[in-house]
Amino acid sequence: MKALVLAAGRGTRMEELTADRPKPMVPLAGKPILEHILVGLREAGAREFVVVTGYRAEVLETYFGDGRRWDVFIQYRRQETQNGNAKAIQLAQDAMGSEPFFLTFGDIILHPANYRRVAESFRRQPADLLMTLVWLEDVSHHSSVIFDEDGRVRDIIEKPDPAQVKSHWNSAALFMARPALFDYTARLAPSERGEYELTDAIRAMAYDPARLVRGEKVEGYWGDLADAEELRRMEERMREEGQAI
């Protein structure tokens, strides 16, 4: 099984922690954030990785190399222009083949049991895209995902205004995707921020009656490691659950 990990961002809100390294290389519980993600995906069956790098790419690529130290194979694609996560996904299309693959971000941490749960859920009930969901009290800086009782995703609203919030379920940013996803990322127009965004591709898939986008709720801890405070809180959660090394 293959995995695509987006790790091109700098993480400016990490301030000095990312002065000389990309955010996925910031230490969390004794090792880089991305290493936790890679090991979780490997234990769920991923053996071939494509990592999209950008800011200070050489730091990440030197550390992980070809992946043999973790018993996986890693290749890289560099996103020279930071023009959105959907464009980053497009850079890896040639390497992903025709089978379903994991997709995630290099700064999203969740309890490692969820990687295997997502793979097993996809095998039981295949979809064009299986997206993980986490309940948040405040989704204004994240997303609001609307879905049916059977888990079929109907819409996703990025950074919703209060009037737009119809669900407090947020995308947990771990996916199982069929290659059909590339058809939707390729057709995107820039968002209001001038970027090509994965959220818009997911919405287009959800609106397409010929496609199935399904939601799967995560269990245990989850974190979008946006700044040093989020990093500290995540280390505490991991330590509480016996995950810190």
Oligomeric assembly: single chain
How many strand elements?
13
Query: What number of domains?
Result: 1
CATH class (first level) name: Alpha Beta
| CATH topology group | Spore Coat Polysaccharide Biosynthesis Protein SpsA, Chain A
Residue windows where pLDDT falls under 50 for at least 5 positions: none
Describe the 3D structure:
45% of the residues are buried. It contains eight helices and 13 strands. The protein starts with a strand and ends in a 5-residue tail after the last helix. The model has no long low-confidence stretch (mean pLDDT 95). The strands form four sheets. It has a seven-stranded mixed β-sheet, with helices on both faces. It has one domain: Spore Coat Polysaccharide Biosynthesis Protein SpsA, Chain A (Alpha-Beta Complex), CATH 3.90.550. Helices cover 29% and strands 27% of the residues. By secondary structure, the protein is an alpha/beta fold. The protein is globular.
Which keywords apply here?
two-stranded antiparallel sheet, single chain, 29% helix, 8 helices, Spore Coat Polysaccharide Biosynthesis Protein SpsA, Chain A, alpha/beta
Topology:
Elements: E1 2-7, E2 27-28, E3 31-32, H1 33-43, E4 48-53, H2 57-64, E5 73-78, H3 85-91, H4 93-96, E6 101-105, E7 108-110, H5 113-124, E8 129-135, E9 143-147, E10 153-158, E11 169-177, H6 181-186, H7 198-207, E12 213-217, E13 222-224, H8 228-240
Parallel strand pairs: 1-4, 1-6, 4-5, 8-12
Antiparallel strand pairs: 2-3, 6-11, 7-13, 8-11, 9-10
